[in-house]
Amino acid sequence: LYSMEMNDCPSGGFTFDLCKRNAWLEANNASGAIMKKAKKTGTTIAGIIFKDGVIIGADTRATEGPIVADKNCEKIHYLAPNIFCGGAGTSADCENVTEMMSSNLTLHRLNTGRECRVTTAVTMLAQYLFRYQGHISAALIVGGVDCTGPSLFTIHPHGSVDQLPYVTMGSGSLAAMAVFEAGYQESLDKEAGINLVRAAITAGIVNDLGSGSNVDITVITSGNVERFRNIDKAEPKYKSKSPLKYGPGTTAFVNEIITKMKITVTEGEAMDD
After folding, report:
1. % of the chain residues with pLDDT over 90
2. 41, 43, 44, 63: which one is catalytic?
3. 3-state secondary structure the chain
4. How far is the C-alpha of 226 from the C-alpha of 229, rounded, in Å?
5. pLDDT per residue over 136-187, tens digit each?
6. Is 250 a residue of the active site?
7. Which one of 59, 89, 106, 118 is least enclosed by Cβ atoms within 10 Å?
8. Cα 137 from chain centre
9. Using CA of residue 135, residue 141, residue 145, residue 148, what is the dihedral sign?
10. How confident is the model over 69-87, as pLDDT tens digits?
């Protein structure tokens, strides 16, 4: 039988071995090798609680590093008939996590015979993300209307949760939050709430290189959902009304050489293939 000794017992607290290793690598990097950096993603998603429900907005740009991979992707995902979710981070993680959670919430509704609460979806998502300690890159805004009224949450990739009347996530979140801080009021009506979320997403698109293209809006109220796809479209590429035309001789050249060539044409039978 295996006998556990004192040395086999796991020690509590944090370990900083990797921090020491990284510091040593940076200090002894004489070869000038490029150190690995954290991967950056780009998105602007935002949401507010208004008088009758919840409004969630998102941009539509998907990036692969410095490349725009998709100009019109959809970042607002369905979870339940009364709950929707905006996702930032790695697109594959966001899509698969939200699809899996939508399936689980469907089974939950069929099992209980009741409409799902927003806190149920938030708890299931937070526990799932916490289990993987941030390795699933999905930063989520979950909003919906249930028997307790409108609710709005943010879920960070490590599993932490915030509940606020207005929230933003993604690389353009600071610009969007500035718009919310300046213009949000309690008991906003539907039209004013939509315009505020549109302005917040537009601020992220204009001020963040990882966000861009169009604006999507989803309005969730009691018993009803309205989805506005591409409610604001990106500015088209500029085309000059009078294109520039350069006449002959505009570009100067150093010298000119003209060579005469003799071309001889010989008639004969066609060559076989």
Report:
1. 65
2. 43
3. CCCCCHHHCCCCCCCCHHHHHHHHHHHCCCCCCCCCCCCCCCCCEEEEECCCEEEEEEECCEEECCEEEECCCCCEEEEECCEEEEEEECHHHHHHHHHHHHHHHHHHHHHHCCCCCHHHHHHHHHHHHHHCCCCCCEEEEEEEEECCEEEEEEECCCCCEEECCEEEECCCHHHHHHHHHHHCCCCCCHHHHHHHHHHHHHHHHHHCCCCCCCEEEEEEECCEEEEEEEEECCCCCCCCCCCCCCCCCCCCCCCCCCCCCCCCCCCCCCCCC
4. 10
5. 999 999 999 999 999 999 999 999 999 999 999 999 999 999 999 999 999 8
6. no
7. 106
8. 10
9. positive
10. 999 999 999 999 999 999 9
Distance in angstroms (rounded) separating the CA atoms of residues 160 and 48: 19
Place of tokens 């690598």: 25
The model's pTM = 0.76
